[in-house]
Amino acid sequence: MSPSPEPGHDPQENDDGLEAGTVASAPSLEQLERGLAVLQAFSRQHPSLTVSDVSRLAGINRASARRILLTLRNLGHVRSDGRYFSLTPSVLKLGWSYFASLGLDEIARPLMGELTKQVDEACSLATLDPPDIVYIAREYGQHHMTVSGGIGSRLPAHATAVGRTLLAYMREAEIDDYLEHHRLEAYTSQTVTDPHAFKDRLRTITAQGWALVDQELEIGLRSLAAPIFGSARRPVAAMSISSNSARTSLSDLQARCLPPLLKTAESISTALSRGAGRSAGF
Q: What is the maximal distance between C-alpha atoms in the chain?
């Protein structure tokens, strides 16, 4: 006699609640797709949008855009002045779960604090959301840089050391796709804007394991960055040290800050890898 199914248990479903063998062909939830498209319509270039703007950028009709925006407003993820909508800091909760699951914040912050005390320069941790980087942690020394912002602030990836580091470890096809869809905008006279020269810089980064960007985002701003690797040895973030060219030469920045930066990045990467191994039962 075959056992009866447990109450509330569908025998056609596996323990994850998905029908066995149908994960790849599972139907999409259209309203969820539309809601995510609305959130992704906002960017550094488009921080405030009307319903019509969202409709156009998300590729949905105005009625759907309006319903989704009002739902997001009720949930506290967007705000509105009656015409324009913009994201609120609450939306960061949607993405932070990923980094919390890695243990990245818990591991990185104490080590970043120690690094900042050691070099007395600003230290930042960021992830890639093309065409930008998004800051997920920042520590400041006594010297504040003019380019600043809290957790969730964004800067162009191609002109920053953390962004260039994360781009460098992408697959060749991904880099080509990035260059095809995102113009390398010049922010100073030193910004690398030629795609071929840019790819050469990326190859140098992967060969040496770190990036140096000198005054390409803002005159006076110099930054070093190193990748933070996850368990699969793919970067999940990058960490940088930034200083001012008026008080820190390139040689001093590299001699004083690069060794502790690389050591700290490796420590975080190792801790992430071990944490993932423990959680998987290794």
A: 83
**Is 276 buried (19+), middle (13-18) or exposed (0-12) by CB count in 10 A?**
middle
In 3D, which of 130, 102, 106, 125 has the Cα closest to residue 115?
125
CB-based contacts of 239, cutoff 8 Å, min separation 6: 108, 112, 123, 124, 125, 126, 162, 225, 226, 228, 261, 264, 265, 268
What's the CA angle centered on 81, arms 80 and 85, to 5 degrees? 35
- What residues have CB less than 8 Å from 138, skipping those under 6 apart? 122, 123, 124, 125, 148, 149, 150, 151
Confidence of residue 200 (pLDDT cuts 50, 70, 90): very high
With beta carbons less than 8 A apart as the criterion, state whether 217 and 242 touch: no
User: pTM of the full predicted structure?
Assistant: 0.67
Quick one: which of 227, 229, 16, 225 has its CA closest to 102? 229
Structure tokens at 18: 């998905």
DSSP code at position 19: B
CB atoms within 10 A of CB 130: 17
How would you classify the pairing of strands 132-139 and 154-156? antiparallel
Mean pLDDT value across the chain: 84
